[in-house]
Design goal:
- By secondary structure, the protein is of the alpha/beta class.
- It has one domain (about 10-140): Response regulator (Rossmann fold, 3-Layer(aba) Sandwich), CATH 3.40.50.2300.
- It is about 40% helix and about 15% strand.
- Strands 2-1-3-4-5 form a 5-stranded parallel sheet, with helices on both faces.
- The longest helix is centred in the last third of the chain and has 18 residues, at about 125-140.
- The protein is globular and about 35 Å long.
- The two termini are about 30 Å apart.
- Residues about 1-5 have low confidence and may be disordered.
Length: about 150
């Protein structure tokens, strides 16, 4: 498949409308928002990933990257991360936690659960935009994802 025509979906799990818009703007500056899907809570993220509820009919395939906030309503980011990394069909998706939390236990728990990176959101817009652009460019355009293994034969 030609890399130039393939749309790399990013799932943004963020309850702050302002942070979601800033993320979208920062990614668009590097043309990596073609497939940006945004959900505003952890329950919707799990529905999206497991293709159930409102997302039962979404197209097949996993996102190339998940940008995950920790502090969210309904289901928190730690539980979303636990379910992603505990599922054989989802665990290879890179997950970047982007949060305002600098709490040591949150950082440690995320790495124990298998997060790929933990980024503390900068307060200043310029710094936030630069951090998001760097993440998007690396994980969506430079990172080489694993090739799915063929299904086991009975």
């Amino acid at each position: 498949m030609n890399m130039m025509t393939h749309v790399h979906h990013i799932l943004l799990v963020e309850d702050s409308p302002q942070d979601a818009e800033l993320t979208r703007e920062a990614l668009s500056e590097n043309n990596v928002t073609n497939g940006l899907d945004h959900v505003s809570d952890g329950a919707a993220a799990l529905d999206y990933l497991f293709r159930r509820g409102a997302y039962a009919n979404r197209e097949n395939g996993n996102p190339a990257l998940i940008l995950l906030d920790l502090k969210m309503p309904k289901v928190d980011g730690l539980e979303v991360l636990r379910q992603i990394k505990g599922d054989p069909k989802l665990r290879t998706i890179p997950v970047i936690v982007m949060t305002s939390s600098r709490e040591g236990p949150d950082i440690s728990r995320c790495y124990e659960l298998g997060v790929n990176a933990f980024v503390v959101k900068p307060v200043a817009f310029g710094e936030f935009a630069e951090a998001v652009k760097a993440i998007g460019v690396f994980w969506v355009t430079l990172n080489e994802p694993p090739t799915p293994l063929p299904a086991a034969q009975p």
